[in-house]
Write a structure and sequence with these properties.
Length: 266
């Protein structure tokens, strides 16, 4: 009897996914500006005086921020001084759900809505859906929201469970995007009024969204329905290819210019 047959079914499934997700099956790496360089280019325009970041970790993106800033993470692990470009920083070491339940971001910004937001929290679609709903409420129509990790390159990195991916045989070992890719079809179906552009930013893409409506309740009203529908959806590597073909990730400068947020690079 093969060894794999005596392993738990979940492990057997993972091994099968690993076996079919090698370099020949995976999509090539995103070829555009790295996502941190996209954020840097946005801040360098000087147009974003208020910034909300969900999911800060070591501060690799927070250090790029300028102006008045809110950062939320349940476990900050800052490895650098993130303050140089800021005029003020409000840091909340809590979950994003708790933050939005207990804080008023607009009040923290002295009555200003967010100019820019970067959502990079838990890599599960229901968490990102809630983060988007709550962030849109404190935005203006011209606010730019960026969502990370929505354009995975194969099926293994797009699974819900964070596993020991070091055992994988392809060049993307250690990459976990989770199932936040589901936000693309969700927004396309339920919020066609939004302006959405996908950016080919390594490692796992960026989604830029503008044309926001802070009064909209569509997603919150349909939240349970959406979660129930997408909870069991999975993405294999051919599915990841189809996702890219449908939403067409482009260079940052082109995608952002189409949303009215031009940058000078990428």
């Amino acid at each position: 009897m093969p060894v794999t047959q005596i392993l738990p079914r979940k492990v057997q499934t993972l091994i099968k996914r690993i076996e079919v997700s090698g370099d020949k099956e995976s999509l090539p790496e995103h070829a555009g500006l790295h996502y941190r360089k996209v954020l840097r280019a946005l801040f360098e325009t000087g147009r974003y005086g208020t910034y909300l970041e969900i999911g800060t970790s070591t501060g690799g993106t927070l250090v790029l921020a300028t102006g008045r800033v809110i950062a939320v993470d349940p476990d900050f692990r800052l490895t650098r001084n993130v303050l140089p470009g800021m005029t003020e920083l409000h840091a909340f070491q809590t979950t994003s759900d708790d933050f939005f339940a207990t804080q008023d971001p607009i009040a923290l910004m002295q009555g200003a809505t967010m100019d820019l937001a970067f959502l990079d929290g838990m890599h599960l679609f229901e968490f990102l859906l809630r983060d988007f709903i709550n962030t849109e409420k404190v935005s203006a129509p011209g606010t730019l929201i960026l969502m990370h990790d929505c354009l995975p390159l194969n099926g293994v990195m797009a699974q819900r469970d964070l596993v020991d991916v070091d055992a994988r045989t392809d060049r993307y070992f250690g990459w976990w995007a989770g199932d936040v890719w589901k936000m693309l079809p969700i927004l396309a179906e339920h919020r066609p009024d939004l302006k959405l552009a996908c950016i080919n930013a390594p490692p796992t893409g960026l989604v830029a969204i503008s044309g926001l409506d802070p009064q909209s309740t569509v997603l919150s009203d349909r939240y349970e329905e959406i979660v129930a529908r997408y909870a069991e959806e999975e993405l294999d590597t051919p599915g990841a290819r189809s996702l890219h073909e449908r939403f067409r990730p482009r260079p940052a400068a082109q995608a952002l210019a189409d949303l009215g947020h031009p940058i000078s690079a990428g």
